[in-house]
Design goal:
This protein is mostly helical. It has two domains: about 5-270, no CATH class; about 275-330. The protein has twelve helices and no strands. It has helices at about 5-30, 40-50, 50-70, 75-85, 90-100, 105-125, 135-160, 165-185, 195-215, 220-240, 250-270, 275-330. The protein is globular, with a radius of gyration of 26 Å. The termini are far apart.
């Protein structure tokens, strides 16, 4: 294993630690804010940016991204993404510590499988970690376009089925994967620096969808689903688009097992037990109540304004009548 690969692993571990702690801070901050909506991006952005706790979480997430970009410049996309995928185990542990809630059996299994996946990945690195090639621009754009199309369809489908948290988490993960792949391409330099545009768009849309999802579900479910796709798709793209090699023989089998393990671990952690269903539905119900209260207050304000206008008109009309009567008597 080369020095650059070791440095990349350390950077990736630091990145996933910062990012997952940031997800928890952002969740707690977003859940306490008025209703956020991707249909009102400027209003939602103002609400988020005026919350110090959320801004701190976003700053941590941004620092995690810089570490991630540095790791990508030193190692293969599949390697870095696999390490980040295992970070969901950290998210589950910290989430349980902060909320005082014990991890369910499924969640504990997810943490264990994720950790085993990271160990298997470390073993497979004995055979080296090839970077593959730069990938064709057409194949990269096709991959990003299909991913963006799927991400745009998910939120509407989720609203129709009453699964806003799941849909926004998945859509956010798809957009984050666009940002991750674009980061890999942009760090190649030259004309490919232009991929900074889908990088920014992908991360911006992913961040927004995640905050909306946080208001409808728990941090582990929403961020867990996002993490699943954020890492699974770039790992697949590493082989399909960038032709990153897999070691031959037993080490190759261990590498594949590692990729599968971190993905399965993310799935287990993103799907809470039935005992947690009420807890996960509570934020969504709370958000619906807040939206109903907001609309009710809006209607009451309009009704009050209309009554005030009618009273003012009546008073004005009454004053005019009295003035005419006084003028008539005077005449």
């Amino acid at each position: 294993m080369s020095i650059s690969t070791i440095v990349a692993i350390v950077l990736a571990l630091a990145s996933t630690t910062l990012t997952n702690v940031a997800y928890l801070r952002e969740h707690d901050a977003a859940a306490a804010l008025p209703v956020l909506s991707m249909r009102r991006p400027l209003q939602s952005a103002r609400l988020l940016l005026h919350d110090r706790s959320w801004v701190l979480g976003f700053a941590m997430e941004s620092a995690g991204f810089l570490l991630y970009a540095a790791a990508l410049a030193l190692a293969s996309l599949a390697l870095v993404q696999s390490i980040l995928a295992g970070g969901i185990g950290l998210l589950a542990y910290v989430s349980a510590r902060i909320t005082g809630r014990r991890l369910s059996g499924r969640e504990r299994t997810g943490v264990l499988v994720s950790l085993l996946g990271l160990v298997a990945l470390a073993v497979s690195l004995i055979g080296g970690s090839g970077k593959g090639d730069a990938g064709s621009t057409g194949a990269i754009l096709l991959w990003l376009g299909v991913t963006a199309g799927a991400a745009l369809l998910l939120p509407a489908a989720g609203r129709g089925r009453g699964a806003a948290a799941v849909a926004n988490g998945l859509a956010g993960g798809l957009f984050f994967s666009i940002g991750d792949i674009s980061t890999k391409v942009a760090t190649q330099g030259g004309a490919r620096v232009a991929f900074a545009i889908p990088l920014i768009l992908g991360y911006s849309a992913g961040t927004g969808l995640l905050q909306v999802g946080y208001q409808a579900g728990g941090a582990l479910m929403v961020a867990g689903l996002a993490t699943l796709l954020t890492n699974a798709l770039p790992i697949a793209a590493a082989t399909i688009v960038f032709h990153e090699p897999v070691p031959d023989g037993a080490l190759g089998a261990v590498r594949v097992l590692a990729f599968v393990a971190v993905t399965v671990g993310a799935v287990l952690l993103a799907r809470p037990d039935r005992a947690d269903a009420d807890e996960l539905r509570a934020p969504a119900a709370h958000d619906a109540d807040r939206e109903n209260d907001r609309q009710r207050l809006h209607h009451l304000d309009r009704a009050s304004e209309e009554r005030a206008d009618e009273q003012e008109k009546s008073a004005h009309l009454g004053g005019s009548v009295l003035n005419r009567e006084a003028h008539t008597r005077g005449a």
